């Protein structure tokens, strides 16, 4: 009943999950931002300097086992500790593709941001080869989401913190040559700032969810290009003590007429009362599962659910 399905056993800071089936096996893999919640200090060092953690399930997502962090993601010109956030992993064109937020270094200051999106490929989810950086609209772009759209193009949506924390999009015919399409969802001051876009198809519609730090905003589309806002989901507390905060940065795995939505919470951080989490207790994060479906053209979510086995034959995205 909304209890966590996974917590990082090293730093207790699992966030920004993405879940994908490993083809030809019974394995589901979870990639996540491995925040160092156990790191002391008052700055951003516990968020910066993070690796990408992995966990594997062999029972359809009912239980997860930590398997370490992803190696080989640093650029050779950046020796030492670097920052890795919010992996997006999909399978396309006979390979796995990771789109990763990458920042050189692990500064304690948020003002030192030089964040970019980097593309990697893998034959097996274990070894990754760097393809290159994607175009960016400022020095502070994060949180990629990728899907192949009805017009045949791949789109990559991302947050541009340098432009009011709005969502922008790139397009590509082949996952290699990317071009800027422009702003998709406005940010401040015209609309709520947000992050962590995730795009998927379900119930005959395309959907985008974004994290507004008060729940997940929902947008609907018939072509994955123009979006109509529908409101918020998962802003109300769940039953379990670790799920009594609003859902953050989520990933969706479609399963026929419903979908599994993976999100994380800060169980012990009173977000509306304390500006930033200052100690381990407040910085700790855990990953949960919700069930979503489409009812009368609207996306609805239930967070107080027991895990159920995922069927790889029904998943249509990463």
Produce the secondary structure layout.
Blueprint: E1 14-21, E2 28-34, E3 51-57, E4 65-69, E5 83-92, E6 95-103, E7 116-122, E8 129-133, E9 141-148, E10 154-160, E11 166-172, E12 179-185, E13 195-202, E14 205-211, E15 216-221, E16 228-233, E17 248-255, E18 258-265, H1 280-283, E19 286-295, E20 298-302
Antiparallel strand pairs: 1-2, 2-3, 3-4, 5-6, 6-7, 7-8, 9-10, 10-11, 11-12, 13-14, 14-15, 15-16, 17-18, 18-19, 19-20
How would you describe this protein?
- InterPro entries: GH43_arabinanases (IPR050727), Glyco_hydro_beta-prop_sf (IPR023296).
- This is Glycosyl hydrolase.
- It comes from Kaistia geumhonensis.
- It is a single chain.
- The chain has one helix spanning 280-283; strands at 14-21, 28-34, 51-57, 65-69, 83-92, 95-103, 116-122, 129-133, 141-148, 154-160, 166-172, 179-185, 195-202, 205-211, 216-221, 228-233, 248-255, 258-265, 286-295, 298-302.
- The chain has 318 residues and is mainly beta.
- It has a single domain, classed as Tachylectin-2, Chain A.
- Strand 15 (216-221) and strand 16 (228-233) form a beta hairpin.
- The model has no long low-confidence stretch (mean pLDDT 95).
What's a concise summary of this model?
The chain has one helix and 20 strands.
């Amino acid at each position: 009943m909304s209890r966590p399905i996974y917590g990082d056993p090293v730093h207790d800071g699992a966030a920004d999950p993405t879940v994908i089936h490993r083809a030809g096996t019974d394995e589901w893999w979870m990639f996540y931002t491995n925040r160092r919640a156990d790191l002391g200090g008052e700055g951003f060092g516990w968020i910066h300097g993070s690796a990408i953690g992995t966990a594997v399930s062999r029972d359809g997502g009912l239980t997860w086992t930590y398997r370490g962090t992803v190696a080989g993601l640093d650029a050779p010109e950046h020796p030492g500790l670097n920052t890795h956030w919010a992996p997006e992993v999909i399978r396309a064109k006979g390979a796995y593709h990771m789109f990763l937020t990458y920042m050189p270094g692990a500064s304690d200051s948020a003002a030192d941001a030089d964040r970019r999106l980097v593309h990697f490929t893998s034959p097996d989810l274990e070894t990754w080869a760097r393809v290159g950086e994607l175009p960016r609209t400022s020095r502070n772009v994060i949180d990629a989401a990728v899907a192949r759209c009805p017009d045949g193009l791949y789109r990559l949506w991302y947050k541009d913190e340098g432009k009011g924390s709005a969502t922008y999009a790139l397009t590509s015919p082949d996952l290699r040559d990317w071009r800027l399409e422009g702003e998709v969802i406005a940010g401040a001051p015209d609309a709520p700032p947000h992050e962590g876009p995730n795009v998927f198809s379900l119930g005959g519609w395309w959907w985008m969810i974004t994290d507004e730090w008060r729940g997940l905003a929902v947008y609907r589309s018939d072509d994955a290009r123009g979006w109509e806002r529908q409101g918020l989901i998962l802003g109300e507390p769940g039953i379990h003590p670790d799920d009594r905060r609003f859902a953050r940065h989520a990933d969706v795995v479609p399963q026929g007429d419903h979908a599994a939505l993976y999100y994380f919470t800060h169980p012990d951080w009173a977000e509306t009362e304390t500006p930033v989490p200052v100690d381990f207790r407040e910085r700790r994060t855990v990953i949960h599962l919700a069930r979503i479906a489409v009812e009368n053209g609207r996306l609805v979510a239930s967070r107080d659910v027991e895990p159920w086995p995922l069927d790889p034959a029904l998943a249509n995205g990463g």
